[in-house]
Amino acid sequence: MARAGGAGERLTLAAAELADEIGFDRLTVSAVARRLGVKDPSLYAHIENARELKARVALLALEELADRAAAALAGRAGRDALVAFADAYRGYAKQHPGRYAASRYELDPQTAAASAGPRHSEMTRAILRGYDLPEPDQTDAVRFLGGAFHGFVSLELSGSFRHTPREADASWAWVLDTLDFALRKHPARTA
Amino acid sequence: MARAGGAGERLTLAAAELADEIGFDRLTVSAVARRLGVKDPSLYAHIENARELKARVALLALEELADRAAAALAGRAGRDALVAFADAYRGYAKQHPGRYAASRYELDPQTAAASAGPRHSEMTRAILRGYDLPEPDQTDAVRFLGGAFHGFVSLELSGSFRHTPREADASWAWVLDTLDFALRKHPARTA
DNA sequence: ATGATTTGCCTAATTATATTAGGACGGATT
DNA sequence: AATCCGTCCTAATATAATTAGGCAAATCAT
């Protein structure tokens, strides 16, 4: 449905920008129409419904995020790869909070499978190659890393860290250091 | 505003149950009114607006979660405490997905400060007593654990793990084991 | 060129939700 | 009995989602 370069793309872009400005949860068809200077119903020539609008932003975010992560990973391995990947992730979330939130929007299975979502776990697996983990530990580690990155970024974005003086950057470095250590030294369990 | 045992409580309960059933993001004043068998405007005698309705559910969730976590922590220390706490957290999320989502709802600073939110970080700090971490590592570790727990649960709930056969329970156990190891063996950096 | 098609919009209208204003009603209080 | 208070209601407005049906400029095919 989304033809590259077409009006559908402009629509998605406008929605993504809007999401970054007002928050993904407040993204509405009306608001996007307003921003584009057209009437609400006009958008239905390009999207099925509000859900698709959100899904489009989600897909865009997943791709952009995957692209950045891939670039960060290029030529790196081990700890370097881990840090670069994680930083790309966190950097994107801070720069595009609305899009980042969108990337967690629940897509229907088919759409999700065709999205850049799988690339994310593949890249995480690629990072783990530098840590020599046997299956199923590797799968557990993929989930661990994905959860740790997302959880930290999510808490930081929601302001959970503002109550304590400690710099989020410093904690982030500590976390990455700890993750690297854990993956490097933790004995495989293969349970 | 919320008087214990009053109608306000029933309202909050109804909203929480509804959130668990249809998802926190779909919680509306209308839906709650419908469930209570009253007209929409009637609810405004009890709440300020839709935002307060959500905030009420968030506060309830934070309290219930803190209570469970506290119970899980009672009499435990070290690894046992870590696992019990984490399981309480994950168990609540699976049992009450709507409430759990509500617990991440952004409250205004004052409300957040008066909520059970602080208890959560205090309890996490309590767990870390068993790991002998100096500040500011302890603060970093609190953020690490909070993020890791939330991130994993969040990904699991959103179905991110369904694509891979590996049991979520097994990965969870691996994660907790790894966290315990990292906190126990990781040299303090105090950076 | 030119009629057919496509594309992108629009107006009108419906439904659901959020919210305000103002009033009715029963029980509790003085 | 006069007054409050808590709870609910009807009426009304604004915003958002969405459908139906129509208009015009751009594009294509012949």
UniProtKB/TrEMBL annotation, chains A, B:
<keyword id="KW-0238">DNA-binding</keyword>
<protein>
    <submittedName>
        <fullName>TetR family transcriptional regulator</fullName>
    </submittedName>
</protein>
<dbReference type="InterPro" id="IPR025996">
    <property type="entry name" value="MT1864/Rv1816-like_C"/>
</dbReference>
<dbReference type="GO" id="GO:0003700">
    <property type="term" value="F:DNA-binding transcription factor activity"/>
</dbReference>
<feature type="domain" description="HTH tetR-type">
    <location>
        <begin position="5"/>
        <end position="65"/>
    </location>
</feature>
<dbReference type="InterPro" id="IPR050109">
    <property type="entry name" value="HTH-type_TetR-like_transc_reg"/>
</dbReference>
<dbReference type="Pfam" id="PF00440">
    <property type="entry name" value="TetR_N"/>
</dbReference>
<dbReference type="Pfam" id="PF13305">
    <property type="entry name" value="TetR_C_33"/>
</dbReference>
<feature type="DNA-binding region" description="H-T-H motif">
    <location>
        <begin position="28"/>
        <end position="47"/>
    </location>
</feature>
<keyword id="KW-0804">Transcription</keyword>
<dbReference type="InterPro" id="IPR009057">
    <property type="entry name" value="Homeodomain-like_sf"/>
</dbReference>
<keyword id="KW-0805">Transcription regulation</keyword>
<dbReference type="InterPro" id="IPR001647">
    <property type="entry name" value="HTH_TetR"/>
</dbReference>
<dbReference type="InterPro" id="IPR036271">
    <property type="entry name" value="Tet_transcr_reg_TetR-rel_C_sf"/>
</dbReference>
<dbReference type="GO" id="GO:0000976">
    <property type="term" value="F:transcription cis-regulatory region binding"/>
</dbReference>
